Amino acid sequence: MSEATKTMPHYDRTVEDVGNIVEYGHVNVLVPDQILATLFYVSALGLTRDPYLLTSTDNMWINIGTDQFHLPMGNPQVLRGVTGIVVPDLEAAMRRLRRYGPKLSHTKFSYAERDGGIDVTCPWGNRIRLHAPDLGQFGPIILGTAYVAFDTPVGTAPGIVRFYREVLGTAAKLDGTSARVGAGPTTTLIYRETDAPLPPYDGNHIQISLADFSGPHQRLLARGLITEESDQHQYRFVSLVDPASGELLVEMEHEVRSMRHPLYCRPLVNRDPEHSNRRFAQGREAQPWLMDPD
Hints:
Blueprint: H1 3-7, E1 21-28, H2 34-44, E2 48-49, E3 61-64, E4 67-70, E5 81-86, H3 90-100, E6 110-114, E7 117-121, E8 127-131, H4 135-138, E9 144-153, H5 157-166, E10 172-175, E11 178-182, E12 188-194, E13 205-210, H6 214-222, E14 226-231, E15 234-241, E16 248-258
Parallel strand pairs: 1-4, 5-8, 9-12, 13-16
Antiparallel strand pairs: 1-13, 2-3, 3-4, 5-9, 6-7, 7-8, 10-11, 11-12, 14-15, 15-16
Helix pairs in contact: 2-3
């Protein structure tokens, strides 16, 4: 080994590996009331309704940095788990939750500060945990979905890791009794084993984008797992199975897109919810989603 090599800095290069899932796009749950959804997701959480797409009264897309919630009208769906969101200012988030809480008091809405974050329940029972930015834990995001954590039956985590590795061809690892799956540069899918009774799966879904789009499709198709051939750029599956035995592990619909999908890496508008007409300054309406390089 040369002297130059000995003095070179050492880096953990595996930290930079993204895997085959190159983008996490959204969680989709049906909601029965767009006004209540606006009060909760836009006013109370301080997120941004997409101003360009799905702007009528039967659906809304809610921007969170580079990803979204999708909220079509319908009988309410509840994700079996927790969506973890990084927000710029937890104190400001608490002020908004207190301000708009009375308008949501007739629903399942609740919030509580716990362990350095805020646990929030939406009007229909979906759980969201708000975190402060943390470079060491979540990377350089100021605003975005850090993780989606699903509750899953005891004993399923190892098989879920195998499913993502062998069928989707992406990075996944076992962390105790949880399966952790990289979903793009800043988001993690977490499957956490629990012995608590789980409600029946109600059809909510997540969206991801793959670099190798056709390979997983072929492997899913061979196992009879494709549930929808949406179009040239997209397909769907619901069942996660153990690749070795074929045993059903958990149901969670994945809307799978290619990197040629027209919406891949679409820039999203994010507003600063602390900015208002009463304290307006031009050029301050937008909310950055990444930390300053310094």
